[in-house]
Structure formats: C-alpha cells, structure tokens
Protein 1
Amino acid sequence: MATTLKLPAILRSPTTLQYTIPKKPSSARPSYPRKFYPNDEAKATLSQPWLTTTDPLMPPYPHRAHTHFEEANHGLYGGATIQSGHKISDGRNKGKTLRKWYPNVRVEKLRSVALGVEMSIPTTARVMRTITKCGGLDEYLMGEKPARIKELGLLGWKLRWLVLKSRSVQERWRRERERLGLQGGEGSMHSVESTFAAAWNDTEGRAEILTKMGVSWDELREKRATWERHVKETLGWARGGKVGKVGKSRERKGMNTLDVHDPLTTRLPDYVEEEEPIQELPAVQEGFGIVEVVNEKGGMQRRGAKLVNKKTR
C-alpha cells in the first residue's frame, strides 16, 4: 500500500514578506496632504479579504515598494510621486521659492470583467487615460511590457495575479492553446490547473520532472566549476585547500552539495493528498491597505485590526 503523505501548506514566501512593511510612528505633518487619502469607498474596497490576503505562490514584485510616497502602494499611480522644484517670481517679489507638485489622484470606479467586481481605487489621471485606451482594467493589468510592469505598483501587481488566475482568463488561454496545438490542454499534466500530485503520480510526468531536474543539476555543476576556476586563478586557492589570513590558516569549505545530492535520490512522496483550503481572513472593519503591518515589538497587525501576540520569525 502506498504511503499517504501530505505536503505542508505554504504560509510564507518572498512575496508575503514583500507585502509586509514595518509600522512607523504616525506623523502630524506627513509628506503629502491629508486630502489625498482614499475616501470611504476606497477604504471599503482595499479592506476586502480577497485583496488583503497575499497568496504565497504569487511571484514577488520585481520592483521595490514606494518608501517615500507610501500612498502610491495603495493605488494605481503609474509611478507618479511628489515632484519638488522652485517657483520663480518676477516683479516686487522676484526670487525663487521651494514648492512641491502632487500627482492628480482621483478615486475612480473600475470594473474588472475577469473578477466580476467593481472597485473604487485611487488612480491618477494618466493611468485612467491608459486604462481607457487599453479597453478596460483587465487589459491594462495584463500588459507584458517592462514599463507597464514597473508602473503597476504593489496593488496593481496583486490585481494582475488575481486577474491571471481567474476562470475567464484561464479559459481564454486554454482555447488559444488548443487552437495553436500547444501542450497544456484540458486533462494534460502541463495544464495550469493540474497539481504537482497529478504530475508526480503519473509515470511519464515523473520521468519528465526528474529529467529536467537532472539537466538543471548539470548546469549548476558547470557553473560551480567555472566559479572555482575563477577563484583559483584570482585568489590562489583550490577547493578544499588552506589559505593564510593574518597569521592564521583556515580551511575553505568547497561547494560539495552538488556532489552529495542528486535529483534521482530525492525522496518525494508516492502519493500527495490534496491540500485543505485555507480559510479566508475575516473582513477588516476599520482601516485599509493591501499590506500587513509589523509592529515595532515584533507582532503582526493588519490595518484596522487588533495586534496579534504571535511574533513573526
């Protein structure tokens, strides 16, 4: 009888850490005016559990979050931030005066056809114009150019992931793959809906996985050999040799992990149970935000929620 094992649920990943920001003491004079805070409709949208919960399997955002203009992390700002400069005056008050320009932000009602919801999101006028030209919010979020990815921000990146995982988009891609005769159709182990358990329990799928792992292992070994040759030529030490440092000699450990382990000896379960669905967090009554806030004492707290005593690791 095959051993029944269960893979542990993924709770944390680089993505969840990216959407966790340290809590800073509130300032009486923020770097941007209070009127740019979202209204009640935007707070209600950004406080929805399906938007505040971060999927650990979501790829991390390739760009950094806004640290000097944190308001942009909770809207579609298109990379807009505060501009600083001078106001040059003529006449009696001739001279230069420091001033700032704030982005033109409006709380717009945007409908996502893929998600089937209408959201009130703080959006700049330039991004709203781009959304209209693209033909809707979904098409704007699914843009593939690097400039589009960079201007999405944390909120846009999470909305993009939700749109790409929706049933309507997956069905559209499935029909496109079938029309082009590509792999990944319904019932195939290459399908995006298939799980690791289905691929591992299939004989052909397991052989293909091990073959790809072996190729990747060989590439890592080749890169390791190149790196060790470079270090040997520049620093003058061989793998497993000794190097003198300020009158002391210490042994440099070689990168023998690739020699000890091999993908063919990897112990994976013969059968993997389906993971239980993770319960959604209750709706936040007060506050808004798409990121978790870490208290200075190490506790985890969501915007508008009570502090949890459990410390983060």
Note: The radius of gyration is 26 Å.
Protein 2
Amino acid sequence: MSRRLRVVVVDDQNLVRQGIRGLLELSDAVDVIGEASDGAEALDAIEALDPDVALLDLRMPGMGGIEVLEALRERGSDVPALVLTTFDDAELVLTAMRAGARGYLLKDVTLDQLVDAIGTVANGGTVLQPALTDRLVRESAPAADAQAIDVALTGREADVLRLVAGGFNNREIAEMLHLAEGTVKNHVSNAIAKLGARDRTQAVLRALHRGLLAGS
C-alpha cells in the first residue's frame, strides 16, 4: 500500500476547514496533519510540518493566499500549494499560478477530484479544473509581458491545447480534429517542450499567459 499523502488545510472559515478535513479523512490516500486559519499560521504550519501538499484558500484576513504563495517562493519552500477556493475569476487564477500555485480548484469539486488533484500536485504535476481552463481560453488576450520569451506554436498545436484546456483527452481530441491519436500526442509533447512546461496543464497556462490561445 502506498504512503498516505500528508496535507495541511488552510482556510479562514472554521466550518469550511473542518468540513474539508472531514471529507479528506474519508479517503485512504490522505492524512490531514494540520490546519491554519490565516496566512501567517499557514506559513508556520507548512514550515513546521513539511506536508506533501498545502490546501490553500485565497481570500483570508491579513495575509491572503497570494501572499502566502509569494512568501513560500521567497523562502525556497518545496511544498506544493493547491488552491481551493470559491473564486473563479480568470485573472485571479492566473495570478495564483504565477505566484507559484501548482493547482487551482473550486470548492464544488468532488472528494475524488480533490484527492486525485492532491496526488497529482504531490507528484510534481499541475491541476486546473477543465471549466476554469476553458474560461481562461475564452477570456484570454495577448499578454503584455515584456519578459515573456518568444514562443511560436503551430496552428495545430494551438488547436490541440485549446481542447486540452477544455478537458478533452488525446483520444477525444484526435476524433474531434480527425487526427491519429499519436499525432495529437506529438502535438501536445511539442507544445510542452516549446513552452518549457512540466505537463499539459502548465503548457496551457503558459500559452494563455502569452496570449497564444486567443481566437478560435
């Protein structure tokens, strides 16, 4: 049996925090080893407990989630943070991911989705709900970031990433674009390499940040 993942839950609302803990304790894959009700407590708990993943709310009194993410990055912490919030604002999603979040979920996710996301983030992956990535694609515009490196995706690579953002897998994308599944996989791999991303989700985020998925 694999080791249970150690999680710290950060949320300023006591009832919500206890609810998240209660749900996660139903899973055999996760141990909740600590809680925090604000950003300062979160930093202390993460430093003291060294969890596999920190579940982080964004809007908290005092030090909010974005500030926690920035502080973790400044401290060189290698604990990955997974945002769990009610806010689906596109700019807030991008701000959190740029600040160092490894995933962004809304609080309407199921327990299975949350546990899967914790596992993905703990293993170095990136997680974003399909509904959020789809919205980001629709609202994206070319980013005015002078420091962004020049990246040129082919039209087909951009098409494939838009569908990845919509939550479709390689087989489904192949059927929709009338391509071989292996060809789709190659397009995804090429886009990941060009964008210097860890995985397909981060590739979508980096493409969005550079305005590479605007249009249809």
Note: The chain has two domains: 5-128, 135-209.
Protein 3
Amino acid sequence: MQNIHPPFRGALWESNHPCMPVIKSRPTFTTLPFYNFLLWVLLGVLTFPCCVRCLIFKVGVLGPWNCDPVQNRALPAAAARLAVNRINGDLNLDLGLKLDFIILQEPCETSTALTAFIYNENKADVFIGPTNPGYCVAASLLSKNWDKAIFSYGCVNYELDWVMGYPTFSRTVPFPSEVLFIVLKYFRWASVVVISSNEDIWRDTAARVATALRREGLPVGLVTSIGMNETEMESTLRKIQEAGEIRVIIMCMHSVLIGGEQQATFLLKAQEMGLTSGKYVFMPYDTLHYSLPYTNVSFSPPAKQQQAEGSL
C-alpha cells in the first residue's frame, strides 16, 4: 500500500466501483475556511490510487446555496473552482486524471432535500455534504448503496459513527457535540437549553445536538425554536427563564458574527428582558464549523446591539 500523506493517515479505501473510495475509519480535519476545507478534501480524494482508472473524477458540493443567503455568501462555485484548479495544476498530484466539481442545490426543507439527493447518484463520484442533519442517515444509506463516499461537516448524527452500518460516511471536523461537551465540562456548566431559528435545517440541527448532549449525560432542559415574531420570541425567552437552573443557551442558527439577523434580533430581545447580564451564556453553534475572521477590522454597531452581542 502506498504511503499516505499524514493528514489522511488512518483511512483505508476499498471499493468495487472503479472511481469510488469507501472509508473504513473516521478521519477528521481541523476547522478551515471553506476554500481550504474543499482543498484538503479534494487532495484526500486524489491521494488514493483506486481513482487512477478514471479520466474525470467529479466532486459534488452539496448545500442550500439558493435558499439560504448566508450560505450563498460562501461562494461555493468560486471556492471549488480555486481548489480544483490548484489540484489539477500540481504536478506532484498527477495521477492520470482530472478533478472536476458540480454545485448541487440542497432545498431548505428536509423532506424535499432528501428527495433531491436521490437524483444525485449519477451526477458526482463523491459528495461534500449534506449540510442538513435531518436526512444525513438516509443520505448515508443511499451513498452506501451507490458505493460513493460522503464527506460531511454538518451531520451531527452520532449513529453515523458506526462504520459497519455507514462505511461510506466520513466527518471532516470533530464531532460538534464532543467539542461542546469539553467546553461545558471545563467551565462546569451542566444545564443547557438548545434553541434554533425556524428553518428545517436548524430545527433538525437543534434536535440532533440535544440528543448528542444527552448521550453525554448532560441535562437539556428545553429544545425549541425562537418563533416567527417578537411575541413568540419573548415567549421562548420566558420558557428559558422558567426552565430552572439553566446556565447555557446553545443557539442553532446563523451567527450574528457572520451577519445572522435572527440571532441579532434574539439577542436584542434577550437584552431587553435582562437575560444578557451574565446569568446566561449564549453559545453560537454554527461557529464550531468554520474559522471566524480575525483581521484587525473595527465595527461600530449601535451601543444596544454591541452590548447584546457581548453576551456571546
């Protein structure tokens, strides 16, 4: 067996499909910006000799690009093109094939996202995604039947770690609930609630995160959405106050740190109700999956909003 680059050691690829590797273990990578994340995944695909017989190896980049404005700002086509061009132009990776990509649209509703995924069988040789944990198990079973690998950063379903049942599934980041558990254990924060915005993808994420934390032995006092308007949002915050000795509020929605408007509104309402004074810790869940900008840029939000965001 050929030498494998260190970041990809621990992965054994087997497949009867001429272009398709199957993962036998669970490699994880450090959190990277979307372009670098794609680059490392695509480099991993090229590392293995079973792909040499293919002239073109196509990677499907799956996500809710059309229906989610924040996801769309990731510029998946531009990121994939940069990664593919860099790999194809690297003479050290000349394996007699060309890497290509296709952007696959993932509907925002879980049921329609699964239906759409069924039609992706012949569109790509490997998939990066899905982002919606609501159909990760079903998608992984389909990929097992197709003998095609799935690299996912959004699937938080603990059952996917069963290698015999889901041999074509691999995580690209550490299991998010384990990261949360380590942080909560370090600060001795035992009681949490998990809230989400109203989209299917975030409702399903909140449910899976709560299940994973309960498996670690943490009491999750409440799992709910923030509501559709200020009245429902206030009602959700009242439920949190009435849920007992809650210390941490895990927010499954687009972070205000990258422009998430619903989280900004939620934090402002929490501030109005006096919940941002230090009693509760507000943790944005989505920031576990990517690197936040760290350049020296000054922002001048309104004082009220700045105080609310300071509770993160």
Note: Confidence is low (pLDDT under 50) at residues 1-32, 49-53.
Protein 4
Amino acid sequence: MKYGSLVFETNEFLIIKKYQEMNYTIEDYAHKNVLDVLTQNMTSALCLNKVDIPYDIITMYTTIKVSSAFGIRQTFQVVPPNEVNLKENKISVISSLGASVIGRAQGDRISYGLPGDTVSLVIEKVKQPKTANKTTTKGDMTEEVNIH
C-alpha cells in the first residue's frame, strides 16, 4: 500500500463501519474474506480530516480504473450500497471489488476473485468527484492522475 495502511476521511470511515454492521450480506466465501480483510485493515487505517485526504485515495464517489497484465480493464465508481447501478458502473463500497479498493491509492495492487482464481489488479487511475475538497482538486477542475 502506497501509504502503508488504508486512508479514510474520518466521517466516511464511520459510515463504512455502519454499512458493514447494518448490511452484512455475504455474496460468497470470497466476499466474506474481502470484508474480513477490510475490517482488519480498518483497525490500523489512517483517518484524516477531509481537507487532508491525499488526491489519489479512493473514497466514496471516486471513479477509478483498474487493469491487469491479462488485459482486464474496468472503470467504475465506488458508491454507498443504496446507490448501486451496474449499468452506470456504480458499485457498492461493501461489494467484493468496492471493499478491495476503498481507502487504497493510485498505484496500489489488489487481488480480486475467488480463492485459486484471483487476478492481480493495479489501480491505474483515480478521479475524484467534483465535490472533493480543494486539496484533491485543482480549482473547479477534477484532478485526474495517470500512471505510466
């Protein structure tokens, strides 16, 4: 992990904990494992004020692009569970993929999939929402960072 641990905005950290407690729906064994790892990682997470969150951290409403060495490319937005819309590539923060990326940074690698059938994904691009604070944007323009 780029910052040594997951990084969360303090209020968002509490909201995600609440989602985990309220809606502990398990899709499958791999999803349970991802949520367990997220819970464990959150115990040592760095919680910051909104204005101090680095520009490349994945928060709720961040749009990200992940890719693999095998040609997998996926762009999606991490959203609260009640705003999921797969046609618009909006995935829940507590879904397997959402829980794998939340709090991580551009350039981080994640393992995604079922045990024995996982793929290594790189967080290639992070685009903050237009409502992000001034440290995550340049003026009124959304900050978008690319890895080469």
Note: The chain has one domain: 7-132.
